[in-house]
Amino acid sequence: MLNESEKVQDFLKKLEGLEGQLLELSMSCLAADNGNCFPLDLLANASANRTMATSVGFRKMIEEKNFICAASLLRIQLDTALRFTHLFAWRSLMILP
After folding, report:
1. Higher confidence at residue 35 or residue 72?
2. Cα–Cα distance between 82 and 42 in angstroms, integer?
3. Cβ(15)–Cβ(59) under 8 Å?
4. Which of 43, 61, 76, 91 could be cross-linked to 70 through a Cys-Cys bond (beta carbons 3.0 to 4.6 Å apart)?
5. What gap in Å lies between CA 55 and CA 62, rounded to an integer?
6. Cβ contacts of residue 18 below 8 Å, gap of 6+?
7. Which residue pairs, CB below 8 angstroms and at least 24 apart, start in 64-69?
8. C-alpha to C-alpha distance for 40 and 48, rounded to whole angstroms
9. Nearest-angstrom CA–CA distance, 35 and 68
10. How far apart are CA 20 and CA 87, in angstroms?
11. What is the radius of gyration, based on Cα positions, of the chain?
12. 22 to each of 15, 16, 18, 33, 96, how far by Cα in Å?
């Protein structure tokens, strides 16, 4: 059975792995459609960049036991996710000809 410290370290390693997956996904998004870039691609990559920066900062704050700052970074991540998903909600509400 893992103690709390080992659980946190395991979680941080998983989070770091997800950061790598996000980077790979962003690169494949840029390479899709023969490298043509669309407005949504720019927004997706901006969100991915913000997510990567937030995730790295979050991991460092957890390692330093700075939980107040880590909680603030979680709020920033929620903001990023809500902004990006809002694009799809807004589009579904549009009346298309």
Report:
1. 72
2. 16
3. yes
4. 61
5. 11
6. 55
7. none
8. 12
9. 41
10. 25
11. 17
12. 10, 10, 6, 19, 32
| Residue 55: how many other CB atoms lie within 10 Å | 17
**56: nearest Cα among 97, 12, 26:** 12
Chain position carrying tokens 């996904």: 25
Instruction: Show the DSSP H helices in the chain as ranges.
Output: 4-31, 39-63, 67-93
* Overall residue count recorded for the chain in this entry: 97
Contact 48, 19 (CB under 8 A): no
Quote the crossing angle between the two packed helices 4-31 and 39-63, to the nearest 10°: 160
Question: Using an 8 Å Cβ cutoff, are 52 and 24 in contact?
Answer: no
CA triplet 65, 8, 61: central angle to 5 degrees? 30
